[in-house]
Amino acid sequence: MNALQQLHDLGQSVWLDNIRRELLSSGTLAKWVQEWAVTGLTSNPTIFEQAIGHGSDYDAAIQRHAKQGGSPADVFFAIALEDISAAADLFRPVYEHSGGLDGFVSLEVSPALADDADGTIAEAKRLHAAAARPNVLIKVPGTSAGLLAIEELILAGVPINVTLLFSRAHYLDAAYAYLKGLERRVAAGRKPDIPSVASLFVSRWDVATAEQLPADLRNRVGNAVGAQAYQAYRGLIASARWYQLAARGPRPQRLLFASTGTKSKTLPDTYYISALAAPQTVNTMPEATLAAFADHGTIGAPLAPDGAAAAAALRRIGAAGVDLDALGAELQIKGRDAFAASFDQLLERVRRKMHASRAA
Question: Does residue 224 lie within any of the structural domains?
Fold first, then answer.
């Protein structure tokens, strides 16, 4: 049994943090579902920029959609929905077998809408309707505007993957927006059975603090923040507020660990996966990290739900001069801006390919 299967048996879902058409058409992703216990998939603007913007795999699809008119954004989302829908169909048996707990695929709204609640709501509803599959999650950033949108979208019945969360406070804000949406559904006489995950970004903490911390504290911030968020998550799903809702049938919004590929060559390539093994959670992994963990990953003791060790580490990190609240806010802004830049680059590549196809 490989280590990915062990994670699955522990109760942590293994998702792939990537999508490209060749993974689907070649049968590679289907093989990973069977052999590596992969039960879901996430995407983001950077992933699609790399998939569509480099090489010629999508040129025919761009040409086909360009003939129908529309902007580069229209063409991109049409192509993305083709891939997302195909992946969702691949994972549909997992979704059905798990009773709607697992087997999800995520597609993100335009990063240009990160500070536009109304625009986010409209685009999320459109993408959800266009995908027309129950196991597609629409990714919405956990910005102030995004949180407003999340509550309204859950009320409207749109499954959500909350992205760009970097701290315990960010996670709790997202969780409470989800709960409010469910509570409003109950008050309106609707079933509160709308799935969601909350994606906490991990490795970027360690990149941001590498030069600021002494050697014994470097590369410990991300895992400590992850453990702290896990403690908050376990506390929330054990709360009276959640039990009152749970009696009506919904599953919890699961905590998802994202940005789990190592950025430092001094770290093992499975560093964040081994450290963040935890029941009732999700870990979404880049391809290289997924393959590395299947090959030589190991699982130690699962995360402790009390968070005591993480709290002690974070106290030391704070004493060393890292303002965790300020840095968490900064990382969210930088993450938002990085996705927006990737999206702009993606649309420019699509525009050029559309122009080339029309000139041919």
Answer: yes
